[in-house]
Design goal:
Elements (H helix, E strand, L loop, with lengths): L5 E3 L3 E4 L6 H8 L14 H18 L3 E6 L5 E8 L12 E6 L8 H16 L4 E7 L3 H9 L3 E2 L5 E2 L11 E8 H5 L4
Antiparallel strand pairs: 1-2, 2-3, 3-4, 4-5, 6-9, 7-9, 8-9
Helix pairs in contact: 1-2
C-alpha cells in the first residue's frame, strides 16, 4: 500500500489528522455558509466523530480525507481527499474526491490544487480506473472546482441522493467523473 500519511503541493500539505485540528474543524462544520449544501451543520461531537471515522478509513482503505493546511503557515483550512461513498447508487462502488474548506480559504485555488494532488495519488499510486465527485445540484462552487480539475458531467448520471428524504431540497445531485485514461491524457 502506498504511503498516505502526507501529500504536498506547491502551497499545501495534505496530511493525517491531529488533535489540534479538532477545534478549527468543528468551527468549519458549524459555519452555516460552509455547510450550506449539506443537510445540517455539525456539533463539536459530530465533527470529532467525523475525524475519528476518517482516520478509521485510512486504516481500512489506505487512503482518506486528508487534513489540509497551508504549507507556509501550517494553518489548518479543511480537508481534501478520497473516500468511498457509504450508500448504493448507479455509480457505486466508487472512490470519490472531495473537499471542505473554511470560508477564509475560498477563492485562492486551494480546493483545485489539493484535489489535483489527490487525483494524482488516486491514479498514479492507487492505480484506480476512475474517480467520481458529486454534490447537490445547487452547489455551484464545488461544481466549478470539478470542472477546473478536468472532471466531466453527463446529466444522465445525475441522481437523487438516497440518504436524503424525497422532498429534501438538496436531494438532487450531480455526478462528475474522471477516468485514469482522461487523467493520463493530460486533460486536467
Amino acid at each position: 500500500m502506498p504511503e498516505t500519511s502526507m501529500l504536498k503541493t506547491e502551497r499545501l500539505v495534505l496530511r493525517r489528522w491531529r488533535d489540534g485540528d479538532r477545534e478549527p474543524f468543528a468551527a468549519l462544520n458549524a459555519d452555516p455558509e460552509v455547510m450550506e449544501h449539506f443537510p445540517a451543520t455539525l456539533t463539536r461531537d459530530e465533527s470529532d466523530t467525523m475525524i475519528d471515522r476518517i482516520e478509521t478509513r485510512f486504516e481500512e482503505y489506505g487512503f482518506g480525507l486528508w487534513a489540509l493546511e497551508i504549507a507556509e503557515t501550517g494553518q489548518f483550512i479543511g480537508f481534501t481527499g478520497l473516500s468511498v461513498p457509504g450508500f448504493k447508487a448507479h455509480f457505486t462502488p466508487a472512490v470519490e474526491v472531495g473537499w471542505r474548506l473554511s470560508r477564509s480559504s475560498w477563492g485562492h485555488g486551494y480546493a483545485s490544487e489539493a484535489a489535483q494532488r489527490a487525483l494524482t495519488f488516486a491514479f498514479d499510486d492507487l492505480e484506480l480506473a476512475e474517480v467520481v465527485s458529486f454534490t447537490s445540484r445547487t452547489n455551484l462552487r464545488s461544481q466549478k472546482v470539478m470542472r477546473r480539475i478536468g472532471m466531466t458531467n453527463d446529466p444522465a448520471d445525475d441522481f437523487d441522493h438516497p440518504l436524503l428524504d424525497e422532498d429534501h431540497p438538496l436531494r438532487p445531485h450531480v455526478l462528475w467523473r474522471m477516468t485514469a485514461e482522461h487523467w493520463r491524457d493530460g486533460i486536467h
